[in-house]
Design a protein that fits this description.
167 residues; 2 domains; 4-stranded mixed β-sheet; elongated; hydrolase; endonuclease; HNH_5; endonuclease activity
């Protein structure tokens, strides 16, 4: 079971195991805002299983630029959908091939399905007559949120801002 951790300002900070969340609550570092499922059983106590906790002290999070793109980051940004055909994607492709001077930047990398990746090869979109379904960009601010918030649990929804989660 996973637990949503909210910073003292009620913004989502992380998602941790319910055991880690229970330890934070027992040490007085957080409060339980919502409970979920069966309790955590210890030799001496039954502890309610936290679904959402709120930290008592604000944790300052330093967020710099997203840095170099990674396969995981590109797939997450594009929601695992092929930028050429819209099917499920498992690979990453250079829009402008490296052999033709393309770089490995956020703006030139795209999630891609296997068949499209093979068909495209080192050709340009003009040569193939293809158009992009999405425009590759540097990830938006919500990409800093934990990946678990891409598909949040129902019990977390009252504590999340839907506009921050939509891309």
């Amino acid at each position: 079971m996973r637990t949503l951790v909210l910073n003292a300002g009620y913004e989502p900070l992380n998602v941790v195991t319910s055991r880690r969340a229970a330890v934070l609550v027992m040490r007085g570092k957080a409060s339980v805002l919502a409970e979920d499922g069966s309790p955590i059983v210890s030799p001496s106590a039954l502890i309610p299983r936290p679904a959402v906790i709120l930290l008592h002290q604000y944790v300052r999070v330093v967020r710099t630029s997203p840095g170099a793109p990674s396969r995981r980051g590109i797939l997450r940004r594009d929601r695992r959908q092929c930028g050429y055909c819209g099917r499920s994607a498992a690979t990453v492709d250079h829009v402008i091939p490296k052999s033709r001077g393309g770089d490995s930047s956020w703006e030139n990398l795209l999630a891609c399905c296997g068949p499209c990746n093979v068909r495209k090869g080192d050709k340009t979109l003009d040569q193939l007559g293809w158009k992009l379904l999405i425009t590759p960009r540097v990830p938006p601010h919500h990409m800093w949120l934990p990946a678990e918030l891409d598909a949040p649990r129902d019990v977390w929804m009252p504590f999340l801002d839907p506009s921050a989660l939509s891309a």
